[in-house]
Amino acid sequence: MADKLPEEEHPKPAFGWAARDQSGVLSPFKFSRRATGEKDVAFTVLYCGICHSDLHMVKNEWGVTQYPLIPGHEIVGVVTEVGSKVEKFKVGDKVGVGCMVGSCRSCDSCDNNLENYCSKKILTYGAKYYDGTVTYGGYSDNMVADEHFIVRIPNNLPLDAGAPLLCAGITVYSPLRYFGLDKPGMHVGIVGLGGLGHVAVKFARAMGVKVTVISTSPNKKQEALENLGADSFLVSRDQDQMQAAMGTLDGIIDTVSAVHPLLPLVALLKSHGKLVLVGAPEKPLELPVFPLITGRKTVGGSCFGGIKETQEMIDFAAKHNITADIEVIPMDYVNTAMERVLKADVRYRFVIDVGKTLKPDV
């Protein structure tokens, strides 16, 4: 039988799969959502993507996890209830929730539609909500969130293949825009051809950018060039290839979440080039300073995106038919999927068919 949280925490019954300890193993779990408030939107979860950060969190690799943990921040579904003061959504709308469900709404970041950089932002799972309760993610049958943090999903965007855009998509779209790497004719490198990297290639190509995929895996060359439409491919372990490409890139989006050397990537940049890190390795990376100084190069980072930009990204994806390449799985396959994520054995994103396969343990 599934465990159950105390009834007094939240009044809306819910069911999902949760991790209980650092083993990271997920299992059926009964809990409760808060009742739908006046500015809240409640929706049935139909699909939820599995992000690499879910793996870090269930195993407490970042040291911030509170158990029980219900992961999932690439959540899409259909609205079932709206609060009395909700203005933007109605029952039956297709909607999504990404990486956050709250922020202070009054700081400079929030005032500039950058809620993702608010020091008081509330993450979709594993965080404390305003009322002191813990937030739970999309590996569950329903979701409740303030309408401000809900994204509308266009009708022509498939819900299953569109779900990963709410994290993977916005995480690469935002730095392409912010760092000015979205101009037609620019030459941008994408490091890593995984969940984030493959959608980065698609967005950059749709923006008119010349794309070079940089990977440790030579066997991904055909995929990058023929299936994803990249212009060129570099094997990062091939010294001759890397040497020949030195000083050719205007910018690089580095999606790798494992420890890896930065110096070879910095060398690929033109003077004034920008290396932007969006992957989150669990250990510090070594950063050589001299090549930055001599080329006036920049190394920066970027976190997903604000709600306005996330909606912009979803609309852009719908216009240009950009979706994630996915493998749809049943809920009870999630632990095997997590093991495969660790091995990078997925092309390129797992999406849980929550609506059809999450069966309450009664």
TrEMBL record:
Keyword field: Metal-binding, NAD, Oxidoreductase, Zinc
Any GO BP annotation: lignin biosynthetic process
Residues in Enoyl reductase (ER) domain copies: 24-352
E.C. number: 1.1.1.255
Cell wall biogenesis/degradation listed as a keyword: no
Catalytic reaction equation(s): D-mannitol + NAD(+) = D-mannose + NADH + H(+)
Cited Gene3D superfamilies: Medium-chain alcohol dehydrogenases, catalytic domain, NAD(P)-binding Rossmann-like Domain
Cofactor: Zn(2+)
Pfam family, one: ADH_zinc_N
Gene Ontology MF annotations: mannitol dehydrogenase activity; zinc ion binding
Residue intervals passing through the bilayer: none
Family as reported in the entry's similarity comment: Belongs to the zinc-containing alcohol dehydrogenase family.
Record function comment: Oxidizes mannitol to mannose. Provides the initial step by which translocated mannitol is committed to central metabolism and, by regulating mannitol pool size, is important in regulating salt tolerance at the cellular level.
PANTHER family, sorted: ALDEHYDE REDUCTASE
Protein name, as recorded: mannitol dehydrogenase
Lineage: Eukaryota, Viridiplantae, Streptophyta, Embryophyta, Tracheophyta
